[in-house]
Design brief:
Elements: E1 2-3, E2 8-9, E3 22-24, E4 37-43, E5 51-55, E6 58-60, E7 66-71, E8 74-79, E9 90-94, E10 97-100
Antiparallel strand pairs: 1-2, 3-4, 4-8, 5-6, 5-9, 7-8, 9-10
Domain Ig-like: 18-101
Keywords: Cytoplasm, Disulfide bond, Phosphoprotein
Pfam family, one: I-set
Amino acid sequence: VCDTGDQQTTATVLVKEPEVIIVEALKDVTSYEGEDAVFECRLSRETTQDAQWFLGDVPLQSNEMNEIRVEGTRQTLILRKVTLEDCGPISFKVGQHTSAA
């Protein structure tokens, strides 16, 4: 706001977060039953945007079977003690970008 006493004008500032892209894609992982499977990808920058991991079409969350880590621009998914039922596509989505393995 700029107010000179008898005149006033206003403006608005809008700050948008730059688009985040995946600069290091997921790689396929082969593990033995009972071992951990680790998937990693790297983003163009740190982000506050929602990022989501999927096993098939099922969204994953950190719990006793899955560990999701965010360290700067690195996003990591650890599937603990995998079983044959864990076989399938893993994907990571952020904004409009997806990487799959």
